[in-house]
């Protein structure tokens, strides 16, 4: 999927939507319009997942924040949980995995839900704040725990989901994996 999505010119749009029959209204005659609709549906899945993930992050952050105020425990926990979920779900549902789900569900969970839930920008801001205030030890601990535990959580999610499955990958599209 391209970003920004390609939108047909006005001339093309007028040609694509033409009266099919005077009593039947308009009929869309091109696969291009269908593809635009499908792409828009995927954007809606991402938005919906991000909204839910963001609300979950806020709720969990509020719950844990009340207990820990000198170290960003909630951010570390949220990133570990999100990393596990993306590793687990991605492995279970990858093409050839145990559960075949539509692309829209994978995008909803892996890009929307996990993207809205995990908090790398919060992690970065909190680490900078710790550094800025001279709490170098806590800043390094935050970086170390976040990177190592989140990487470990993705690997653990992958290994747990891979039991009884032949899937070797987690990501299967360019949107899920930015290495291609």
Chain-wise SSE layout:
Elements: H1 10-16, E1 17-21, E2 25-28, H2 31-65, H3 73-93, H4 103-117, H5 120-132, H6 136-162
Antiparallel strand pairs: 1-2
Helix pairs in contact: 2-3, 2-4, 3-4, 3-6, 5-6
Explain this structure to me?
It is a single chain. This protein has 180 residues and is mostly helical. The chain is 66% helix and 5% strand. The chain has one domain (32-162). The chain contains 6 helices and 2 strands. Strands 1-2 form a two-stranded antiparallel sheet. A hairpin with a 3-residue loop joins β1 and β2.
Short key terms for the protein model shown above:
6 helices, globular
Short characterization:
The chain has 180 residues and is mainly α.
- Strand ordering within the main sheet: 1-2
Q: State the shape.
A: globular
Subunit organisation of the chains? single chain
Task: Give the uncertain stretches in residue-range form.
Answer: 21-26
N- to C-terminal distance: 13 Å
Mean pLDDT: 79
- Major β-sheet annotation: 2 strands, antiparallel
C-alpha Rg (nearest Å): 21 Å
Number of strands: 2
Number of domains: 1
């Amino acid at each position: 999927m391209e970003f920004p999505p390609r939108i047909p010119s006005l001339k093309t749009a007028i040609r694509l939507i033409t009266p099919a029959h005077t009593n039947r209204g308009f009929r869309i005659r091109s696969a291009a319009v269908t593809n635009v609709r499908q792409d828009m549906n995927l954007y809606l899945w991402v938005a919906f997942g991000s909204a839910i993930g963001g609300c979950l992050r806020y709720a969990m952050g509020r719950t844990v924040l009340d207990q820990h105020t000198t170290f960003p425990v909630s951010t570390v926990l949220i990133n570990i949980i999100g990393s596990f979920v993306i590793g687990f779900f991605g492995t279970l549902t990858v093409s050839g995995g145990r559960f075949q789900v539509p692309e829209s569900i994978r995008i909803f969970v892996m890009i929307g839900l996990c993207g809205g839930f995990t908090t790398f920008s919060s992690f970065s801001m909190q680490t900078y704040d710790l550094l800025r205030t001279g709490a170098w030890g806590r800043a390094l601990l935050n970086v170390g725990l976040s990177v190592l535990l989140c990487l470990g959580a993705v690997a653990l999610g992958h290994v747990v989901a891979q039991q009884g499955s032949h899937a070797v990958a987690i990501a299967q599209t360019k949107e899920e994996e930015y290495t291609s």
